[in-house]
Write a structure and sequence with these properties.
Elements lengths: L6 E7 L3 H5 L3 H15 L5 E4 L6 H13 L4 E6 L9 H5 L5 E5 L12 H6 L2 H14 L4 E5 L5 H21 L2 E5 L13 H7 L3 E5 L1 H10 L2 H14 L1 E2 L5 H20 L4 E4 L1 H5 L9 H9 L3 E4 L3 H14 L3 E9 L4 E5 L16 E3 L13 E3 L5 E12 L2 E11 L12 E6 L3 H10 L6 E5 L3 H11 L2 E4 L1
Parallel strand pairs: 1-2, 1-3, 3-4, 4-5, 6-7, 6-9, 8-13, 9-10, 16-19
Antiparallel strand pairs: 11-12, 11-18, 12-17, 13-14, 15-16, 15-18, 16-17
Keywords: Arabinose catabolism, Carbohydrate metabolism, Isomerase, Manganese, Metal-binding
Organism: Salinactinospora qingdaonensis
Protein name: L-arabinose isomerase
Length: 465
């Protein structure tokens, strides 16, 4: 789901005042806008609007961007442009916005004449435009850079990926199969507040509908999935054909229902599946492979965590659902794992991902086939979405590294040891003070800055520990 580049619109702003003074300036600055787009071609697909020189131009450009299902709008001052002509556009903007404070030439030289001054005077247009955005209450990012540099391309890439995540997140539907775990307070929240403030919508799917879907599948669909698994994973010879078929039917049925309900994320709770009485085992391996395909996931009916795993996919790729299991003080790290669900796209590349037969007492069902792997060592980031009451939400984030640590042979679920950059003591003190939840998303790489841009655009408090 995140293989494509972000798709952004470039809105270049100027005014007619300069046309008589400098004939051809509009065409010249339109070419500058196209050059900026070309410079960004490897980090975003950029749609360039004709130069905006008045209110009608601005409104038409924004409508075109929104109708084209773009992820965000990059605003570039081609010259000075009075902000009152574009105030309504930003007051009603539905797409994430970034103001690129750039100019055609990076250096002021003695050779400059009035035309050069006019071509490069975007800075005070940016001030007028930014003032209009602030007055409109519009969250927006700002990038001041030399546009020809890698630094500019990198910063636009960060914003564009965050814009892609924000736009997708605002339209997200999270499917909950059954109900959420009783007593798990940090996953409780006001669903209407979430939809109002941030966008994600919760959809409840009855376990009975899931059961019927498993019965409607053809044997050829099941066989095709099992054949793919044979090619992709190391298969435990103790797994019976019946166990694998049950797992495959659950995975395919969950995926089918997610498509039918237009859900990009989901959660299952072991009690909701176990108490139903019709399912032989829990869908552990299903969660791992569906995450690898870009679906958000969380256990125990935790819609908040499922939604932020989905955002992690969109923002940085390969979101991995996990939780903190135990602290290891000698290595200054935290053992990360969960009951059996994890995105195998973050697995070590020097070890096979194993599909194993695995006893599990939780749910009081038969052994669930489970994908077992260790997490790839290297930089990583944790993020936890916290409901603070009403329409207030917070994202607690920690950067660090996954260690090339010891094997734990008795741990039959995905795992790794995460060493926070701030150290276990400081990290956990801050995490707990901030109300960080026990379910979270892990992304490989240091992406706290990406999460910060995401939070600023969507209206979430950002808290790094």
């Amino acid at each position: 789901m995140t293989d494509r580049l972000p798709r952004i619109g470039l809105m270049g702003i100027m005014q007619e005042l300069y046309d008589d003074m400098i004939p051809g300036i509009t065409d010249r600055q339109a070419g500058y806008a196209r050059d900026v787009a070309a410079h960004l071609a490897d980090v975003a697909e950029v749609v360039v609007a004709p130069p905006v020189r008045g209110r009608a131009n601005a409104e038409r450009a924004m409508r075109d961007f929104e109708n084209a299902d773009l992820d965000g709008v990059l605003v570039v001052m081609l010259t000075y442009g009075p902000s009152l002509r574009i105030t309504r556009v930003f007051n009603e903007a539905r797409l994430p916005v970034c103001l690129a404070n750039i100019q055609p030439d990076p250096t002021v030289t003695p050779e400059w004449d009035m035309a050069d001054m006019t071509y490069n005077q975007g800075i005070h247009g940016a001030q007028d435009t930014a003032n209009a955005m602030v007055r409109a209450g519009l969250p927006f990012d700002v990038i001041t850079e030399e546009w020809q540099t890698e630094a500019f391309r990198s910063r636009v890439s960060r914003w564009a990926r965050a814009a892609r995540a924000v736009t997708a997140w605002r339209q997200l539907r999270v499917g909950i199969f059954g109900y959420a775990m009783n007593g798990m307070g940090d996953a409780r929240f006001d669903e209407t507040a979430l939809a109002r403030a941030l966008g994600p919508e919760i959809v409840t799917i009855a376990p009975g509908r899931l059961y019927r879907a498993t019965q409607e599948l053809s044997s050829s669909e099941v066989a095709e999935l099992m054949a793919w698994e044979d090619q992709r994973f190391s298969i435990d010879p103790r797994l019976s054909k019946e166990e694998r078929e049950d797992h495959a039917r659950l995975q395919l049925s969950i995926e089918r229902l997610l498509r039918e309900h237009d859900c990009g994320a989901y959660s299952t709770h072991f009690d909701a599946i176990g108490e139903d009485g019709r399912f032989p085992r829990l869908p552990m391996a299903a969660a791992s492979t569906l995450m690898s395909q870009g679906y958000g996931f969380a256990g125990e009916g935790d819609a908040l965590a499922a939604s932020i795993v989905y955002a992690g996919h969109q923002l940085a790729g390969d979101g991995h659902f996990t939780e903190m299991y135990a602290m290891d003080f000698p290595s200054d790290s935290i053992l990360m794992s969960h009951m059996g669900e994890g995105n195998w796209k973050v697995a070590r590349d020097d070890e096979p991902v194993r599909l194993i037969k695995r006893p599990l007492g939780i749910g009081n069902l038969d052994d669930p086939p489970t994908l077992l792997f260790r997490i790839q060592p290297g930089p990583a980031t944790l993020a936890s979405l916290v409901a603070l009451g009403g329409e207030r939400f917070r994202l607690v984030v920690s950067e660090g590294e996954v260690l090339d640590s010891q094997e734990l042979p008795a741990l039959e679920m995905p795992y790794g040891q995460f060493r926070p950059a701030s150290g276990v003591r400081t990290c956990m003190d801050g995490w707990l003070r901030a109300g960080g939840t026990h379910h979270m998303v892990m992304n490989l790489g240091h992406v706290a800055a990406d999460w910060q841009v995401f939070c600023e655009m969507v209206g979430i408090e950002f808290y790094q520990v």
